[in-house]
């Protein structure tokens, strides 16, 4: 079966494949030699020493963790990786001890799979016990369906269950004695990504930075949205990642130069902020190297981590636990500082406007926090332009701190910010950091492609139900094909033309690795006109 048959991603940003070999039958060894010789520098080969695997369990696990991290980096770079056991045959003194050696090797390869974080493009496993354990214990296959044959006598499986580590990944069971000498090599070559450079790895543009509005603060042109880190049970959000999965993503973001992280105290009831603090601690990320943006307005229910009141009302058990009173602003900031384990917040944003609190009380409280050094800059999110202007000019009239940023819903499918808010911000020197730049994923994939989130997400249906959306998405897809980039990169490049730094939710290592792709996408005036010309004004949403 070809990559096209499997609908396998072979774009420049696609990850590499993974081949695992634990079998010691002669034919397997011959096939591995052919694979290594035939693929040359296009294949990263990592050998696990069986003698070391039979040593101290603690040292073995540490070695496997290090191996998984190394393999993960290569996979992220689009390189195919072969993990194989050393070819020197080690046998026991009797049948029982020899069988035990096979079990130890199989368990080691299972541990490697469990430690591996990035999702490979495919997984090929050679050897009977190895392929069985890798599927059931390493990849958590409970039930799988056969899709056909990757090669003659070589079955290809897929598991679509959410419990699977990599749902729907092509999984090839390659028996030890099946195939000719070059069968494995030919399969890996057929499924390989097009070469992008001499190392077989894609080189993404270096991250770029720009001033936030007319302030002196520089932020990354991609802002990492951290709403997807926390508690998957919070408001029934299965797309939210727990700490163990979120931490490697934050580390990768830092490594590729995404120095600006956007969160809110209400996200997973404070859990998102706590995970950011954990990342700084675990990876020893200097606080001065990050720009942390957080927000306040909504209640934080730390004693009920799964809860999110809808609607949230400043009364009853939530009285003074939300809104923009001086009391709540100060207490919310103290809570964020505690969870973030930091002495200051770089950019404190109003998540929504509290219409029951005067502009003077709101802006004086924010100004005092800046004067105290607990907040460096202030911003706002999702309100009407006249409301934002009223707050801004209240501060100006009193000589208080003014806003540096505005974060509104803005993308190719929803452009109502262009009526008043964007021109006002440009005139005032306020930076634009729009949220949902890919329209909750609609601009990142072909129109007919659905995900589990898009099927269930009520906000997608409410905000992006216009009949013009399909045509606009189709145009994004057309330009992406012309430019040789992802659809998401086109949508983000369009925002870049508007002077904005988008807040992007990146829930996979490979997406973070390729996040800067849009910086190299050049849209000329005709491209922009083609993307924009079908848009018709919509009702104002998300306020």
UniProtKB/TrEMBL annotation:
**Annotated signal peptide:** none
Q: What InterPro entries is this protein classified in?
A: AKR_Detox_Biosynth, NAD(P)_OxRdtase_dom_sf, NADP_OxRdtase_dom, NBD_C, NBD_C_sf
Q: Which residues cross the membrane?
A: none
NADP-dependent oxidoreductase domain residues: 222-535
| Protein species of origin | Microdochium trichocladiopsis
Four-carbon acid sugar kinase nucleotide binding domain residues are 18-184
PANTHER family referenced in this protein's UniProt entry, alphabetically: ARYL-ALCOHOL DEHYDROGENASE AAD16-RELATED, NADH-SPECIFIC METHYLGLYOXAL REDUCTASE-RELATED
Q: What is this protein called?
A: NADP-dependent oxidoreductase domain-containing protein
For this protein's source organism, the top of the classification is:
Eukaryota, Fungi, Dikarya, Ascomycota, Pezizomycotina
Q: Which UniProt keywords apply?
A: Oxidoreductase
Which GO terms fall under molecular function for this chain's record?
Answer: oxidoreductase activity
Q: Which Pfam families match?
A: Aldo_ket_red (PF00248), NBD_C (PF17042)
């Amino acid at each position: 079966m070809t990559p096209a048959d499997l609908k396998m991603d072979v774009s420049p940003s696609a990850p590499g494949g993974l081949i695992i070999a634990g079998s010691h039958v002669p034919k397997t060894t011959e096939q591995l030699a052919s694979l290594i010789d035939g693929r040359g520098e296009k294949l990263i080969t990592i050998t696990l020493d069986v003698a070391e695997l039979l040593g101290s369990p603690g040292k073995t696990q540490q070695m496997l963790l290090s191996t998984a991290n190394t393999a993960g980096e290569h996979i992220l770079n689009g390189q195919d990786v072969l993990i194989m056991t050393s070819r020197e045959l080690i046998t026991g003194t009797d049948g029982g001890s020899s069988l035990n050696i096979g079990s130890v090797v199989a368990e080691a390869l299972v541990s490697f799979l469990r430690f591996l974080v990035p999702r490979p493009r495919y997984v090929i496993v050679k050897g009977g016990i190895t392929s069985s354990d890798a599927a059931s214990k390493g990849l958590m296959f409970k039930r799988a369906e056969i899709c056909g044959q990757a090669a003659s006598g070589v079955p290809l499986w897929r598991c679509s269950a959410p419990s699977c580590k990599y749902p729907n990944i092509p999984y090839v069971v390659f028996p030890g004695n099946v195939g000719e000498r070059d069968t494995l090599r030919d399969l890996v070559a057929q499924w390989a990504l097009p070469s992008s450079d001499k190392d077989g790895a894609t080189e993404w543009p270096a991250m770029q930075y720009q001033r936030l509005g007319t302030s002196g603060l520089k932020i990354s042109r991609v802002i990492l949205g951290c709403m997807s880190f926390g508690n998957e049970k919070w408001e029934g959000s299965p797309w939210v990642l727990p700490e163990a999965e979120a931490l490697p993503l934050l580390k990768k973001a830092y490594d590729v130069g995404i120095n600006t992280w956007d969160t809110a105290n209400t996200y997973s009831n404070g859990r998102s902020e706590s995970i950011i603090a954990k990342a700084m601690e675990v990876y020893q990320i200097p606080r001065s190297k990050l720009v942390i943006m957080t927000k306040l307005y909504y209640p934080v229910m730390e004693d009920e981590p799964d809860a999110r009141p809808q609607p949230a009302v400043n009364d009853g058990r939530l009285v003074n636990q939300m809104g923009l009173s001086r009391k709540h602003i100060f207490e919310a900031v103290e809570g964020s500082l505690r969870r973030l384990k930091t002495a200051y917040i770089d950019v404190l944003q109003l998540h929504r406007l509290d219409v029951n609190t005067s502009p003077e009380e709101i802006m004086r409280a924010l100004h005092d926090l800046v004067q105290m050094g607990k907040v460096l800059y202030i911003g706002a999110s999702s309100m009407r332009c006249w409301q934002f202007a009223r707050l801004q000019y209240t501060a100006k009239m009193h000589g208080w701190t003014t806003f540096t940023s505005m974060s509104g819903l803005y993308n190719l499918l929803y452009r109502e910010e262009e009526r008043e808010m964007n021109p006002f911000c440009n005139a005032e020197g306020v930076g634009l950091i729009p949220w949902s730049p890919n329209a909750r994923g609609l601009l990142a994939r072909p129109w007919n492609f659905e995900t589990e989130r898009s099927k269930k997400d009520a906000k997608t249906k409410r905000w992006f139900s216009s009949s013009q959306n399909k045509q606009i998405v189709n145009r994004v897809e057309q330009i992406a094909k012309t430019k040789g980039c992802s659809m998401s990169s086109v949508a983000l490049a369009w925002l870049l033309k508007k002077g904005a730094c988008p807040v992007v939710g990146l829930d996979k290592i490979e997406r973070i690795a390729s996040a800067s792709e849009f910086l190299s996408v050049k849209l000329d005036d005709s491209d922009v006109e083609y993307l924009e010309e079908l848009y018709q004004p919509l009702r104002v949403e998300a306020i």
